[in-house]
Amino acid sequence: MSLKFLSDEWFAKVDELKAAAGDIEVPASMADLVINLTVTGTDSGDVDIALNAGMIEKGHKDGAPTKMILPVDLAQRLFIDNDQSAGMQGFMSGQIKIEGDMSKLMAMQTVQPSADQKALQKEILAVTAS
């Protein structure tokens, strides 16, 4: 099954995978981290998501100190393909726009996902269309 990244069907499947995974161990430095993202260039226009304690969720979270705006292809490379170099390349080329507390993003760069997070990410990657 290949679902279009950030489609309603994709979000439904990701929610299903997260529920099946149960309580996922998250590194302490990521537990309170909330970043809002607006992903541009999707088939549905701009899509608002949040990175909340290391998990992608649909919609923005009230009170998030940081907002990132980036194109869909870059978002997929960062959050699905786990391409760490894509973030720096996107920022340096001006594809990523940051509003608010940039230190939150810097903290995220040094955090390594837990084994639980890596396992869930692998399942999400398996259902996401390239």
Topology, number of strands: 5
**CATH topology assignment:** Nonspecific Lipid-transfer Protein, Chain A
CATH H-level name... which superfamily? SCP2 sterol-binding domain
Please write the string of helix (H) and strand (E) elements.
HHEEEEHHEHH
Terminus-to-terminus distance: 12 Å
Known CATH architecture: 2-Layer Sandwich
Report the major sheet: 5 strands, mixed
Number of domains: 1
**Can you give the helix content as a percent range?**
40-55%
Q: Reading side by side through the largest sheet, how are the strands ordered?
A: 3-2-1-4-5
What is the number of helices?
6
Structure, described:
A hairpin with a 2-residue loop joins strand 1 and strand 2 (45-52). This protein is α+β, with helices and mostly antiparallel strands and 130 residues long. The protein has a single domain (8-127), classed as SCP2 sterol-binding domain (Nonspecific Lipid-transfer Protein, Chain A), CATH 3.30.1050. The relative contact order is 0.22. Helix 1 runs antiparallel to helix 6. The chain is 43% helix and 24% strand. The chain is built from six helices and five strands. The protein has a five-stranded mixed β-sheet.
